[in-house]
Amino acid sequence: FDSLESPQEYYLSRQGDPWDFDYGRTDAGAAAMGSLASGGRVGDPIRAVCPVSDDVLILGCTRSLWALRGDPTAGGYVARLSEHAGILGPNAWCTDDAGTLYFLGETGLYALRGAGRCENLSRSRAPALGGLDAVGCGTPGAAGRTFVTLAYDADRHGVLILLTPFEPASPGTHYFLDLRTDSLWPERYPLAVGPTCAAYYNAADPARRRLLLGGRDGRLYAFDEALRGDTAGGAAEAAVASHVWTAPVALAGPARDAVVTRLDGTLAADSDAVTYGLHAADTAEGVLAAGAAASGTWAAGRNGPDRTRVRGGAHALRIANDQPGRWAFETAGIEWTEGGELR
């Protein structure tokens, strides 16, 4: 689609004939070529080609985004959508069932709805997703380079952002964008899985319809809701370590501390057990670095109360599981009294 000599230009073969690049023809289905640049400027290299509908083709450059609408030789035209947001590589994009385009650029994770305005989804939640030093696309073996793949998971209603280092010693950190709750979750997979690529297999048979992950070890992997651990590289089922933090809360306001006197929690009826820890510090920032002042185990259903006294200017709850299983957290309740002024 693009050349090494002129990476800012696109080349389209004749419709229905991938071998016909005769640009001298003028009929509606003839081959076409063009440049993605504003007047008087050299355009950015084209990195991704994203067909979002029969009439719109999104062209992702390193730092700009363009839309090719219609047939170029029959009234079609190219319009710039963004002069700042680009796409990192040929697989760094996907579309969901509503036609929304999701893509990863140098400045973060974006959504493009209806070929209109680009929305940055990660700026405030995962700023590490942006930046050339954090994520790149290049030749295998290059230091700091990463396999970048986005895939829509129709079964779990979200987008997988897969960032697998070329170097096999590092598992990398991936993300799952849950479209139902508009939340972004970091994930890690076994080294054998990687994954280095992903695609949704939209089979006619619903039993075969699933998201497939291409592993470093040459195997294809898929998510299985019946399992309670990972099976990677032909090994036996292994535990998946998972945890979640609640946001730190200043219960008594910004100038006073609070003393938590009671804590209880509720898990789903079919949930496996979890461990919990109540963390406290003078500031919200310090809570994440502080050790658990109170901890224990919760089983399915309602648990508690834990009447350990925990004083602090801010409190947060960490819930975790590192055993084979699945867990679902529903609610946590606390009782507290106001303490003294923060120093």
Structural write-up:
The protein is an all-beta fold and 343 residues long. It has 1 helix and 25 strands. The protein has a 4-stranded antiparallel sheet with strand order 3-4-5-6, with no helix packed on it. It has a 4-stranded antiparallel sheet with strand order 7-8-9-10, with no helix packed on it. Strands 11-12-13-14 form a 4-stranded antiparallel sheet, with no helix packed on it. Strand 5 and strand 6 form a beta hairpin. The N and C termini lie far apart (63 Å). About 3% of the residues have low confidence.
Based on the model shown, name its key terms.
elongated; four-stranded antiparallel β-sheet; 343 residues; mainly beta; single chain
